[in-house]
Write a structure and sequence with these properties.
heterodimer; A: alpha/beta; nine-stranded mixed beta sheet; four-stranded antiparallel beta sheet; globular
């Protein structure tokens, strides 16, 4: 259905795409065989800008003596460390994250990097954003390529009734390179979801086929999309809620508060990117008098407080099984500290993932610190970052393994980061679509639903925008064939709801709008 | 299409999406007509926006004379002043603070804050008031090239930006030497912590990667084609021993300065990689850094590197094979032939066929500072009506309320690579535009066109009546709109757009009604009702025109 529609659109109005992979040599079936576009899962990325010192974040206790030798002037006292797992500890400023870890809501993937690490901020940021090999320059982001599959031809024809919301949102004034698609960036930059003023709509005249026309139509599209998406974001912000208090005296706390609000308000955005800068700690990473305080401690404290509040908010609202949060940074830092109480650009570092669907604990072995590391020496890579990305695409967004290889690299290897939460191994999924119709939509009192199933157990229910189940039409075994049901919306407040049809082969979700009487 | 090509496309390694006509012109001097569109194109790209008079003057003078004026060496501007802080014991209001140290105690941070505001307001004043000169544009170019930021001492910032302004049209290699031991740079890239016992390679790395030769592809372990990790380490040793002095100083005997401490300088030989011909640099004390810069500049790649940056600053971000071959390569050769003098290269680029190619006109999305300042300059905005306090306060408010939101804060680039618009593939200039920044841009133009920015009792908004009076035919609404469009926009707009704008100026009325109203106003000077009626209509028109995406382009 979607595929056919896209073919028509592409054929008619986007002839340039004919040279691209979509219609060219790539067989459709292989590319889209198991794409689950109705997956309602959300990925939140936290970019630790500047290169986070992993060894001062997650401290391998079995290496403590060697760290004392290599970075004595910045090393945290062992007595103050927050022990987690068997032989690791968190920085003492991350008390809230220790709480998450102890409750099984946090995973650490050890020593993530890539071969031939590049120590330039810009180049390495590009590599982490695009998912390219170190020696190739790619121009699209890893999530942009995923979203290219979800929304072929974007931005032409978007938003539309099927996809009314932005695919990705960056909190701040810059869009994220991770969401750069083949044609344009999928992310919308917003600062305050309650304050999105409409822009003057341009007169839509044809543009010349020149660089000038190209940039002009980019500007016009940006203006038009901003206006269209602003409405759905403001609706979500107004409908959403935060039920815990956030640390609001720093930007990351405010940013994650707004992300939770938009998720709670029913926004169908799949990716949120937030960032926190200041990790380029060449000098004064720690206070000279007390290594437990200083610039890095402050940053980690902010991260810890903000992420913990976010997770608790999602849990309290029953949204936690839909959201996965992950940190990333362009590189780790050197093993040896420098004389300026700081550390210089290095290689691999741990990645942290948070949520109710992570396989909790540590993945990978502790880094091994040499007895006498060279000045230039940093941690070697244990996991390729593209395997972390790919595992999320496969297990979280349920992209088939072969497509993950296309999006990232042929050598992709799965890492079991996701656990529970109805995680379906994408490769075992069948390609049979789940057919469901619901009418009228929008509706006031009654909704008629028809669907088909095999001889199987069926659960048909409606959730409100904050994840509360409002009604269950079926939860029983049904014979194979067509079935109908009627949903009564008496007493439901006007707004967005979601119809869920759970079959053995998967789940289909449809957005509903209840109008006021 | 084979699988490899397919995969490459999927991965976005090729940008074969939009394929507008290719510009094939090169650096050959342009000999076509130099009319309003060419002249305004040249001035739009080299200054922060021309007004009508400047464009007409350029047309009359011709390309040679206009370029000569743009590239002329001018005396430095008068320094920034204390405009409102009466408690500064060292600098009375109305005097400059740039040679003064700081008072002690609690006053210090207040003094630093007003000087910081003063410097930023003054910087905007320079860009607003500069005539037909490329210097302010080139000063910002170098600021984006040799980035410093977060310095938090306006005396350091002033010294740094003055160095760039003084050498804006000078010699690339010599400026690199001066920047290398500039106090602000020594702080920003930790050169002041770079000592023999503990080398800090931050500056050495950026010197190569961002300031001089650029980074090539990674072709071997630590080998970036143009230099290697070994060179970074060795060059960091070359640069040991330099320190800034007088940071936030309250000691009148210790103004902003640099010093070289030989005992903290690494005096052993430094061995460079084969990329620098295995050169050995022996101890040359405080001359060693200059020797190093000379050595880096023996590589012509430095000329190519700066040529590409100039191209992306003045022309467009797409550097394809044609541009590389027909523009970058000959431009780099000019730079090499002229011993790294920048002026001959600017002259060649700005008089080239390529620069005046129709396909080069208009595709540059204005950076926020250009956007802000050009809205003022295009429409004859003048600061002369304000007293010192009003002038600085208003400019500070414009700076303070818009820079961050539009994502371009003078003196605070986001990183050592400068603003993303000039390096981030594939978006480049498009990184300026998103839902958040669009809002700030539209709020800004609506505000200067209507209520204005206030400060110390003054109100700064566009003087629409004076602006329109400077046009050739403000009486005819069609000519009025066409003339304003020719100043604000890089390419003509369509008749439908002009009609829509006329609907803003005189909604639902025939053309002659404007002529009648405007003539009444002109013939009855001092009649406040007639003036207000015309002024309101013109404010609506300017608001609409400045919000058009065409105004975002240069």
């Amino acid at each position: 259905m979607k595929r056919r529609k896209f073919l028509q659109t592409t054929g008619l109005s986007l002839p340039f795409m004919l040279n691209g992979f979509r219609i060219g040599a790539m067989p459709m079936s292989s590319l889209f065989s198991s794409l689950n576009v109705d997956n309602d899962r959300v990925l939140v990325l936290i970019n630790l800008i500047g290169g986070n010192d992993g060894l001062n974040t997650i401290i391998p206790l079995d290496q403590y003596d060697k760290l004392a030798n290599a970075r004595g002037n910045i090393l945290l006292p062992e007595s103050q460390l927050l022990g987690v797992g068997f032989d690791n500890a968190l920085h003492p400023s991350m008390t809230d994250l220790k709480g998450l870890f102890d409750n099984g809501k946090m995973t650490v993937v050890q020593s993530v990097g890539y071969p031939n690490q590049n120590r330039s901020h810009f180049r390495s940021s590009d590599i982490w954003s695009t998912g390219s090999p170190a020696n190739e320059v790619w121009t699209s982001g890893w999530l942009g390529r995923y979203l290219d599959q979800e929304a072929p031809g974007y931005p032409t024809g978007y938003p539309n009734s099927e996809y009314p919301d932005p695919f990705a949102i960056t909190i701040g004034s810059l869009v994220s390179e991770t969401c750069q698609g083949t044609v344009t960036n999928f992310s919308l930059a917003i600062n305050d979801p309650f304050n999105l003023n409409p822009l003057a709509d341009p007169v839509n005249e044809p543009v010349p086929d020149t660089p000038y026309g190209d940039e002009l139509s980019f500007l016009r599209t940006s203006i038009a999309q901003t206006n269209l998406y602003s409405e759905s974001i403001e609706d979500a912000a107004n409908a959403g809620a935060n039920v815990v208090s956030y640390p609001e005296d720093f930007a990351l706390g405010r940013a994650l508060k707004n992300v939770a609000l938009m998720i709670s308000g029913g926004l169908q955005t799949k990716v949120y990117v937030v960032s926190i800068g200041g990790f380029d700690t060449h000098a004064n990473q720690v206070d000279q008098d007390d290594p437990t305080v200083g610039n890095h401690a402050n940053l980690l404290s902010q991260l810890s407080q903000a992420v913990a509040a976010f997770q608790l908010d999602l849990q309290a609202q029953g949204l936690d099984e839909r959201v996965l949060t992950m940190t990333f940074s362009e590189f780790g830092r050197r093993i040896r500290s420098n004389e300026s109480f700081g550390t210089d650009h290095g290689d691999a570092a741990p990645m942290m993932l948070f949520g109710s669907c992570v396989a909790p604990g540590f993945i990978g072995n502790n880094p091994e610190i040499p007895d006498e590391p060279e000045v230039q020496e940093a941690l070697p890579m244990q996991y390729d970052f593209r395997n972390v990305y790919g595992s999320l695409l496969q297990d979280w967004f349920q992209i088939a393994e072969e497509d993950v290889r296309q999006i990232l690299y042929a050598g992709y290897q799965h890492i079991p980061i996701i656990q529970g939460c109805e995680t379906i191994n994408s490769t075992s999924e069948t390609a049979v679509p789940i057919e469901i119709t619901a009418a009228p939509n929008p509706f006031v009192n009654q909704l008629r639903v028809s669907f088909a199933c095999g001889n199987e157990r069926v659960r048909l229910s409606v959730y409100n925008s904050i994840g509360h189940e409002m009604a269950v039409a079926f939860d029983k075994n049904l014979p194979a064939g067509e079935h109908q049901a009627t949903i009564e919306a008496h007493g439901w407040p006007a707004g967005h709801y979601y119809l869920h049809l759970q079959l053995e082969k998967g789940r289909q979700k449809t957005q509903l709008l209840v109008k006021s009487r | 299409m084979d699988r490899r090509t397919t995969l490459a496309t999927l991965l976005g390694q090729k940008t074969e999406t939009a394929a507008p006509p290719v510009v094939t012109s090169g650096l050959t001097p342009y000999t076509g007509s130099f009319e309003f569109q060419q002249a305004s194109h040249l001035l739009r790209r080299t200054t922060f926006g021309p007004n009508y008079e400047m464009i007409k003057k350029a047309v009359n003078a011709g390309l040679d004379a206009t370029l000569a004026e743009l590239l002329a060496d001018n005396p430095l501007p008068e320094p920034p002043l204390n405009y409102d802080f009466e408690e500064d014991p060292l600098v009375p209001v109305g005097e400059t603070w740039v040679n003064a140290t700081y008072p002690t105690g609690s006053l210090k941070s207040m003094v630093r804050n007003y000087r910081s505001r003063s410097l930023r307001a003054w910087t905007f004043k320079q860009m607003i008031e500069e005539g037909t000169s490329i210097r302010e544009t080139m000063t910002l170019f170098w600021h984006n090239h040799y980035v410093t930021g977060d310095i938090n001492d306006p005396n350091f910032e002033y010294r740094y930006i003055t160095l760039l302004r003084e050498n804006a049209l000078g010699n690339f290699r010599e400026l690199t030497k001066k920047v290398t031991i500039d106090p602000a740079m020594l702080r920003y890239l930790n050169g002041n912590q770079n000592i023999a016992a503990a080398p800090n390679e931050n500056y050495a790395r950026e010197l190569l990667e961002l300031f001089t030769i650029g980074k090539g592809p990674l072709v071997g372990p630590g080998d970036y084609t143009n230099y290697t990790e070994q060179d970074v380490i060795q060059m960091a040793r070359v640069l040991t021993g330099w320190r800034d002095r007088g940071y936030n100083s309250s000691n009148p005997d210790q103004p902003v300065d640099v010093e070289f401490r030989y005992n903290q300088h690494d005096q052993l030989p430094k061995l460079l990689s084969p990329r620098f011909d295995n050169a050995i640099i022996n101890d040359m004390a405080d001359q060693e850094y200059a020797y190093l810069v000379d050595l880096i500049f023996t590589k012509n790649e430095c000329a190519r590197f700066i040529s590409r940056k100039l191209y992306r600053w003045f022309v467009y971000y797409v550097i394809d094979d044609n541009v590389e071959q027909n523009v970058i390569e000959p431009l780099a050769q000019i730079i090499v032939d002229n011993d790294y003098e920048i002026k001959p290269a600017l002259d060649a680029l700005l008089r080239s066929e390529h620069f005046f190619d129709m396909l080069s006109m208009g595709p540059m999305i204005k950076h926020p500072i250009d956007f802000m300042i050009s809205a003022l300059r295009n429409t004859n905005f003048s600061l002369s009506q304000f007293n010192l306090d009003q002038e600085y306060t208003i400019l500070w408010n414009i700076f303070r309320l818009n820079s961050e939101g539009m994502q371009m804060v003078y003196f605070t680039p986001p990183s050592v690579a400068g603003w993303k618009a000039w390096y981030q593939e594939p978006s480049f200039y498009r990184t300026w535009i998103n839902s958040a920044t669009l809002n700030v841009r539209q709020n800004y133009t609506a505000r200067i066109a209507n209520s204005g920015y206030t400060g110390a009792g003054g109100v700064a908004k566009l003087d629409v009546l004076t602006f329109v009076a400077s046009l050739d035919d403000p009486f005819d609404p069609n000519n009025l709109i066409s003339e304003i469009a020719s100043i604000l926009f890089p390419q003509p707009i369509s008749q439908a757009q002009k009609d829509a704008l006329k609907g803003v100026l005189i909604p639902g009325l025939p053309d002659f009604e404007w002529t009648v109203e405007y003539s009444d106003y002109v013939n009855n000077p001092g009649d406040p009702n007639l003036e207000a009626a015309v002024e309101d209509k013109l404010r609506n028109l300017l608001t609409a025109m400045l919000s058009m995406p065409e105004f975002y382009l240069s």
